[in-house]
């Protein structure tokens, strides 16, 4: 085969490999994979030091957060804003804002609750609200306010709209979520929670892994080992 044919084919193969590898090791893929493979354990069955996955419903343990794009009351939110940037004949989406904020909440499983130690957490929240602005499509006021608060504007030179897309994921009260990490029983005071919680299981990172957390429906499916039942 002629070199002029081999070179484009080789470049194409390399590009495909790069895309596959980047998708496999993306935060979303890693978190989903870790949680789907993890063996679950009921909160009530944990002994301090156990490492397993817990599944339960989100419960506010303090003032809820307000998601910046949708205005929803939530315990945790993630926002990703990307701008379409052109370079010659090609274009790509460039991240201009990536923000994640966690409030005070617990995961409830019946009578028992787990609290996430957020010092080392890798999460994936389903981005269930998506917006866009661009040619003939002005940014909504709340989108413009969010951009402005982070030093950006939806308009460029001569007042023309930039092509921007906005994605938001939240943990709402009552939503089913999953987390995997090391469990340690603590008093509400030790976990810095209201006294009404009495005793809670704190989920923390291990020496080698962060806490993995997600509300993806595929991750909350739980398999319990015989020793956990």
Large-scale geometry: elongated
Average pLDDT works out at 88
Radius of gyration: 22 Å
Strand order of the largest sheet: 1-6-7-12-11
Structural class category: alpha+beta
Major sheet: size, sense and barrel closure? 5 strands, mixed, barrel
Beta-strand content? 35-45%
Order of helices and strands: HHEEEEEEEEEHEEEE
Number of helices: 3
- The count of strands amounts to 13
Oligomeric state of the chains in view? single chain
Q: Spans with pLDDT under 50 lasting ≥5 residues?
A: 14-25
Total separate domains: 1
What share of residues is helical? Answer: 10-25%
Terminal CA distance reads 62 Å
Task: List its traits.
single chain, 229 residues, alpha+beta, four-stranded antiparallel β-sheet, 3 helices, elongated
Helix-strand layout with pairing:
Elements: H1 3-24, H2 27-37, E1 51-60, E2 65-66, E3 73-74, E4 76-87, E5 90-102, E6 105-109, E7 112-116, E8 121-124, E9 129-133, H3 141-149, E10 164-171, E11 176-187, E12 199-204, E13 211-214
Parallel strand pairs: 7-12, 8-13
Antiparallel strand pairs: 1-6, 1-11, 2-3, 4-5, 4-10, 6-7, 9-10, 11-12, 11-13
In short:
The protein has helices spanning 3-24, 27-37, 141-149; strands at 51-60, 65-66, 73-74, 76-87, 90-102, 105-109, 112-116, 121-124, 129-133, 164-171, 176-187, 199-204, 211-214.
